[in-house]
């Protein structure tokens, strides 16, 4: 069975949409081992509960929330479509390169 690392980034406004994307990914790729990482500046109890249910239902899935230091992004502009989540996505290489390599 193939294994893939998948990375999402979110801020407080998109937890629900992130869960919908995760559910679709998992439901439509039952034949893959998925290591899913979410980058955020905190956690969301409802998302955590739903993620736990996903991991219990689909044994081929692991989900880890990587909490970023929000202070790192405080001075960056967040106008229009540039949200904190945009900057989180830009930091994927810095935040996860070793984590993904260590877990491969």
Please, could you describe this protein's structure?
The structure is a single chain. The protein is α/β, with parallel strands linked by helices. The chain has one domain (3-102): Alpha-Beta Complex (Spore Coat Polysaccharide Biosynthesis Protein SpsA, Chain A), CATH 3.90.550. 42% of the residues lie in helices and 21% in strands. It has helices at 15-27, 45-57, 84-90, 92-102, and strands at 3-9, 33-40, 61-67. A 3-stranded parallel β-sheet has the order 1-2-3, with helices on both faces.
Question: How is the topology of this model organized?
Answer:
Elements: E1 3-9, H1 15-27, E2 33-40, H2 45-57, E3 61-67, H3 84-90, H4 92-102
Helix pairs in contact: 1-2
Main features:
104 residues, alpha/beta, Spore Coat Polysaccharide Biosynthesis Protein SpsA, Chain A, 3-stranded parallel beta sheet, 4 helices, 3 strands, 42% helix, 21% strand
Briefly say what this structure is:
The protein is of the alpha/beta class and 104 residues long.
Domain module count:
1
Strand order of the largest sheet: 1-2-3
Could you report the average pLDDT, rounded to the nearest whole number? 87
Global structural class: alpha/beta
CATH class descriptor: Alpha Beta
Bulk shape: globular
Cα(first) to Cα(last) distance is 14 Å
Could you give the count of β-strands? 3
Helix percent reads: 40-55%
Which stretches of 5+ consecutive residues score pLDDT under 50?
A: none
